[in-house]
Design brief:
Elements lengths: L1 H11 L4 H13 L3 H14 L4 H13 L3 H17 L4 H17 L3 H14 L4 H13 L4 H14 L1 H14 L3 H9 L4 H5 L1
Helix pairs in contact: 1-2, 2-3, 2-4, 3-4, 4-5, 4-6, 5-6, 6-7, 6-8, 7-8, 8-9, 9-10, 10-11
């Protein structure tokens, strides 16, 4: 029903950026990815300076499992966002999405850099912290860094920290001790020095 209303309005206002983006969002949520791609590309045609169009197209490519196509769109979104002084939460989210694309391509150092950028722009970006913690758990032996991530996540959202620790425990039973310490709020220096 909502899609039909938006489509009718779009026929009348074919060059309305926000309406075209809304149509893309609607198609994306309905998993009509080809239509969503078309909508987001149309939004770029309407206003090539608007970072949200590139961000949504990159996020769609990520959702479709195509991080290679997502990277240039997300980089373009960052460039446009920086040029137009976009709010820091959106800019942080774009960096986080770029980090996720790199992560899915096993370009770990670039992913770490992108997640760190996201965090430096908006310190409470939970997705970036969780992704960074996962990288530190899966790819590096950076226990201090992982512990710092878990502490930050716990400060932002304790439930997310507990879930992440449960996931680590499921992958590696030795992490049960770490999870218990985090839940009990024991100081990290005792464990990792």
């Amino acid at each position: 029903e909502a899609k039909k209303i938006i489509a009718d309005a779009q026929n009348i206002y074919q060059n309305d950026l926000m309406l075209v983006l809304a149509m893309g969002d609607c198609n994306m949520s309905l998993e009509r990815y080809i239509d969503a791609i078309s909508n987001y590309k149309k939004a770029i045609e309407i206003n090539e300076e608007h970072p949200d169009s590139y961000y949504k197209l990159g996020a769609l490519y990520l959702q479709m499992g195509n991080p290679i196509a997502a990277v240039p769109e997300l980089k373009e979104a960052i460039g446009r966002a920086m040029k137009h002084d976009t709010n820091r939460i959106m800019l942080s989210n774009i960096h986080s999405a770029l980090g996720l694309a790199f992560y899915k391509m096993d370009r770990i150092q670039e992913a770490i850099y992108a997640f760190n950028e996201a965090i430096s722009i908006y310190h409470k970006n939970l997705q970036a912290w969780v992704s960074l913690a996962n990288i530190r758990y899966e790819y590096t032996n950076d226990k201090k860094g992982l512990w710092a991530c878990l502490e930050e996540i716990k400060g932002i959202n304790k439930e997310a920290a507990d879930t992440l620790i449960s996931n680590f425990n499921a992958k590696n039973p030795n992490w049960e001790l770490v999870g218990t310490l985090v839940k009990l709020n024991v100081i990290s220096r005792i464990f990792f020095h």
